[in-house]
Write a structure and sequence with these properties.
Elements (H helix, E strand, L loop, with lengths): L16 H25 L5 H30 L7 H6 L2 H31 L5 E2 L3 E2 L8 H36 L13
Antiparallel strand pairs: 1-2
Helix pairs in contact: 1-2, 1-5, 2-4, 4-5
């Protein structure tokens, strides 16, 4: 099946190189954080587990900082609009899902690391970013509060990974089924 849409590598507006770099860096970081989070929680208490928890915290703070940078970039550099042919071909529910997914992912980009930071603070484990920069506690140490935050962090992380999966599935659907060039707008080296 061939599309009658314009050539995506020449005719459609693309994201900036910075937007692409931030997108793919955050994607890799989120995946790594999720895999590390699942793996480390089942480990017995050990120096290795403590080291992995620290790495997870450092990556979570990095995710938060990169999200702030990405949001700042997005607010000052408008993303390209969907090409008219894609907007016309996409059912209204897909357009709403597209926008809702992006908004929810941005919310979770902030919520997941902030909940993790709050949990760590309430559990009495300070965060020293990369072992060098002591970050302030978001909450006073309170074991009961920590235990109430922990499942929220996990739930938010699961929601984020589920939305990321939906985002990936939609991008692949546009690439392989619709063949509308939507994915190429976010791929480096194609324009």
């Amino acid at each position: 099946m061939t599309s009658s849409l314009p050539d995506p590598t020449t005719d459609q507006p693309r994201y900036t190189a910075v937007a692409m770099a931030l997108h793919w860096l955050l994607a890799l970081l989120i995946l790594a954080l999720f895999v590390l989070g699942v793996y480390m929680t089942d480990l017995p208490f050990s120096p290795t587990r403590l080291k992995l928890y620290n790495w997870h915290k450092w990556a979570g703070v990095s995710l938060l900082l990169l999200t702030i940078l990405r949001l700042g970039w997005r607010l000052t550099h408008r993303p390209p609009t969907l090409p008219a042919a894609i907007r016309q071909a996409m059912p209204a529910w897909q357009t709403r899902a597209y926008h809702a997914t992006h908004h929810l992912m941005y919310l979770l980009f902030f919520a997941v690391p902030l909940l993790g930071w709050a949990y760590s603070s309430a559990a009495g484990f300070p965060i020293v970013w990369f072992g060098q920069i002591s970050l302030p506690d978001l909450l006073p140490a309170d074991k009961a509060l920590a235990e109430s935050i922990k499942p929220l962090h996990k739930l938010a992380a699961l929601a984020l990974i589920a939305l990321a999966g939906l985002h990936i599935a939609a991008a692949l659907k546009h690439h392989w089924l619709d063949r509308d060039g939507l994915l190429q707008r976010m791929l480096p080296g194609r324009g």
